[in-house]
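Dear support,

I submitted the protein below through the web form. The confirmation email said the job was done, but the results page showed an empty box. After a refresh the structure appeared. I'm attaching both so you can tell me whether what I see now is the final result or a partial one.
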Amino acid sequence: MNDFKKELDFLGKIVEQELAKLLPPKDEYPPKLHEAIHYSTFAGGKRLRPIMVMKAAELFGMPYEKVIPTACGIEMIHTYSLIHDDLPVMDDDDFRRGKPTCHKVYGEAVALLAGDALLTHAFAAISKNSKIEGICPNAVLDVIEKVSNAAGTYGMIGGQTVDISSSGKAIDQDTIFYISLHKTAALISVSLWSGARLAGASAKDLETIKRFGENIGLVFQIVDDILDEKGDEKSLGKPIGSDAKNMKSTFFKVYGYAGCLDLIDKLSSEAKELISNYKNNNFFIQLTDFIVNRSY
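What the results page shows now:
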């Protein structure tokens, strides 16, 4: 696991270097907007989603360097979603990764626009993959379509909408799975799918990597829900109890602690089984364990 964490750190630094090249300089006019973009983009985080793009490409025989524009684009989308999630009209959080949230530093209007700008820049970044030798332009178009769906009403935004409309209500198991598959797992799954598609993976392999991503994405959300109930505020870098404060529907509420642990075991075992037939799958086995074993 130490080697795994070293690889995460190494690839995460590469992502940060490339993000700095792809985004407008923070002093470019209008500076307040670009400062806000840089503040949130470089506020920390493990860069798991872009690393998934890079490692999925490697799994199917393509050097990770070739898919970095898409990896960075997906990280921009992730950062935009966090900025908007923290806004008072959404989760109303004051801290993210141990630092004041974007709207607490730059105001709600600039934070809203910074998120909008990151979402827009994301697709400019992904489109750059069409100019890299060895990448099929049609594959880039497929990635743009899939990422758009994962970020939009068929993915994150759809999941967020059902999440908001379910606040304060008792929901069933199907609904909590819908929310989490769309709000959280969709972007994780499409990260893996995108790296594989750019590498020329077969339709069967694309379906397998997509399902693997959905499983670990669900595990990620279940662990998040547990941490919001039982986690440590200092290590999380944000207040715990946010879900309860906002009367959010969570796996913890629907399944209870023991039920969540059973789900984590089931979904992570299925994820490992899906990836088991691929050579050089060690990173993905360790990634699954890493997501499962975040402290709770």
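Response: this is the final, complete result; the empty box was a page-load delay. The mean pLDDT is 94.
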